[in-house]
Fold this protein.
Amino acid sequence: MQALGFTVIKAGALSLLQDRGRFGYQNLGLTSGGAMDEHAACWANHLLKNHPDDALLEITFGNVELEAQLPGLVAVTGASCGFSINGEDRENWSVHEVCPGDRLHFGWMREGTRTYLAVVGGFQVAPEFSSVSTVVRESVGGIAGRAVAVGDLLMYPEADSTDLQHASVPFRFRPDYNPSALHLRVIAGYQYAAFSEDERDRFFSSIYKVRPESDRMGYRLAGPSVEPALKGIYSEGIAFGAVQIPADGQPIILMKDRQTIGGYPKIGTVLPLDLFHLSQCRAGTEVIFKLIELDEAQRLMRDFYRFFGI
Amino acid sequence: MAEIRTAGVDSIIVYFGDQPSERLIAEIGFYSHKLQQALGSRVVDLVPSYTSILIHYDLMQLGEAEIRQRVVRVLETQVPDELRCASRGGQQVELPVCYDLSVAPDLQMLSEQTGLTIDEIVRIHSQKTYRVFAIGFSPGFGYLGELDARLRVPRLATPRTEVPAGSVAIAEQSTAVYPQSTPGGWWLIGRCPVPMFDKRREPQSVIEVGDEVRFYPISLAEFNRLKQTGC
């Protein structure tokens, strides 16, 4: 049987096959990876009644064109980038039917940074270390461990269900990716107690800005410097969203492709729901940290996972 | 007694001591296996390193109070005097290293810097038994310690953009084998023909945190032979 799917005509700046991440290999130095904005990614699979871990395409900064070889249903969520099929504008956060020969086009980003494209049944890619998540730095996952390139074939199964055609995400669940200030809820942890009260006050009462050097490994912030009582610590495991304070006092939030261990003191860890939102914010976005109780944070995450059947 | 702290919404970190030591890292290796066994699917990821173990647990199965209780119970298990009896915890690994100048670009400079002859450097580096204190930086990259004080040098001022896979390197208190060709700022003093990390093999990594590692010198001819046979 001939393998069929989307042919990649334009690949964009960074288009990666992702699922929810690679778990159980951090002791060997492999990072988790996974869709940066799980909120948008989970909605894309959910609209199609896919499994929440089915592989989808994470398109960073748009500028992608695909040609369909098979009938199928796709869901597009996340950053809006003027998505069209055969030149006809289509709605974001919705399901669309595709036919052989259709051209799917993602233009430049208008709002947000990452768009998710899911197909019924998920993209068919052989997992590596139990996941298809692409980590370019490690040459692991996706297609030969790299970003999607022109000429690649993104395989998907032929879809027969049509009852999903008009599914879309209710407006109240579509986040604002240009918030005037994004609140990041922090769980106190790690070396929290090693920061003096003054330093903690400064951290939780200042406005920080997302710096342009932010990427899938970490979001670098600029603002009032925070000084830890400790210069460095012995390298230790880094949780998703840990806020590292290096020597210059400028916080770095560690994201999906973070290094597995690190030696900078950490003041706490951002709630994943807020990290998903942060993943869509551009350089210059203002963020404000505030504390959240662990019980409340766990309740919010459980609600999220339960909703998507994780 | 170990100290347990919150690390995130679904993670805790267990600190076993303030200072890394060979004894402590052997204990951490031992408890990593015990925790993995006892917690099973409740654990998503477990990251041992220098003085701690990070435990990422499955929030849909349990909360922090319960994971702490379960971890404390495991930590009550006594560390056996003979740590090596644990299945893969504290295993002994022997790795061949070719110290020929043709595959050791920084050996000459190290000799000048330390005032030791190349033979002395090789003897000092290969006579010690190291422990794996952490794995990170890249898949299968182990931080082995502690390096003999006579060989300690700071990282290179300008890191190389590409270090060949298998390079045996030193920096500060550590020595390592680069599993992949990556950028790197350590001094390259030899080459190991054994693939340190192979995704098609089980286990993928030759070493784990807590393991003991010894290097033994081989000739360039032997290195080329082993490299060809793929060991």
Notes: Helices of chain B lie at 22-39, 64-75, 107-114, 118-127, 220-229.
